[in-house]
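pipeline: protein-struct stage 2 | run 1193 | Tetratricopeptide repeat-containing protein
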Amino acid sequence: MPSDVRNRQMTRPLICKPLVTHTLPALVLSVLLGGCQGFGIAPSSAETRDPMINAPPITRGLDAGGLSTLLIAEMAGLRGDYRRASEGYLKAAQRYQSPALIERATLAARFADDPLLVEEAARRWQSISPEAQPAAEILSTLASSRGDWQEALRQSLIVSENRDDSDITRFVDTALSAGARPERLAEPLRDELSQPRLSAHFRADLTLALALTDAALGDLNQARTRLDSLGNTASQMPPYWLVASRIALDRERPSEARRAAQRGLALSPEDPRFLLLMTRADILLGNLTSARSNADALIELRRDVPLLKVGLAQLFLEEGYPDEASRLLTPVVGEPNTPSPVYLMLGDIAADQGDVENALLYYRQVPEGPDFLLSRHNAAQALIDAGRLIDARDFLRSERLHSSESYSELVIIESELLDSQGQQAEADELLRRELERVPDDGELRYFRAMRAWGNGDADTSESDLRTLIQHQPDNATALNALGYTLADQGDPEDLDEAERLIKRAHELQPNNPAIHDSLGWVAYQRGDLDTALRWIEQAWAQIPDQEVGAHLIEVLWDLGQQQRARDLLQQAQRQFSEHPLIDELIQRRPEIAR
């Protein structure tokens, strides 16, 4: 069945999961408190007074054509037409292979407010001057902004190589907090560590960063070994104590984590991450007075982070201290621009305490936006938990009348809640009625198709997907889902149609990793293992999805790469807290796990 990785391709993905996935888990707080030390793409206010004041001079060696191109670029810059200026400098730089001209092109591109143009200029600059640090800084920032953390790290390594103030550990800590895949970060770190003549500081920095990736992969012994390998040489580096504290928390040793965080804070009193680590450790130890004090100090230190109180409240709530969470959040209610997670969390606290009416008051204050659907789901769930299913349905019906943009998602929420209460017939009727009212509602029809597949009703699933494709022939999600469904059933007569559908989806969305996985799976069903491996490895490199992992393990095994398959199996079992598709693979092919 198409897994969540395919379901996520819906126009507006429905997310009805526990609150912890929508607030700020402890690790994600590091992103807010640390941040990437990148190069700003937007120009500073000082630069805007005279955009080209810091640009390198244009030197001799120009012919008539080159001079004309540069004069046009210079005049464009003076008029504020920075796009044309940048393009002119790029053209001249290509002709003369001049780093100075590329630098001018990059500076002008920043004022054009066009990230693609900035990236083109910076890449040209780097191609001419591979060691140019400003180009690497720009490329690292751009890669970070689009979530390409491996490329961002590669560029950061160029900037930081052998510098005594390098802080690759901070970068990796932030990247992991933002969801970067640790194994993809480990690769460039290992490559860099293998280089000769690294300074002692830079080598220690790389080792600490690698220890963070080990811990993120669940290999805490290896992480600790790397830390111990540095001996006392790194004990004066704040990142050493950051990593030591994180590893200790992962090993469920909060006292050790607290001591390490204290050492780090003594070395770097302005680094809020150590206060955060001490707060986490204190909460785990039950030292509420100290935890409260550290949390308040952290909030005072970082008044510029509006979601910080939410994240800290989440830490208290996760360990069973709702009163402490409420203490942090209640004063924020009613303030201008109160973050919606505040209302979500207070609603959850009230619901857990059985105060349904108060919970509803909080949930209803969550406006349209990323947390709107979750708040309505949680409100309806609170009513159901109180034995008020009819009221929950009335609530969702009322919300639909007031939120036309979220109408379909609210129907889906009601259907899922009915299913969870064993009311499948009522859910069937709800979906039938709504699709009869709006037959071309692609989101609802896609949901019903996936629901039918999950219930073992392949005929209804296929029928709904075909109807959806009739209404929306360029719906890549539906094309991919139907193609994958046909391929996964293993009927040789369906493989041609499956491949045609998936290839059409690929034409529409060539960079979609879910479609890459489907292309690999249909190739696997045909017995073309090499093609299957190529596509599924591409998918796995982009999305950490357990179904893609299961596919890759099976393909590797059948290609005779048993050790790689087993290594990936162990990695997947560590990486995913729940892995039913991996378990199903082992049950079906137990030899892989032996």
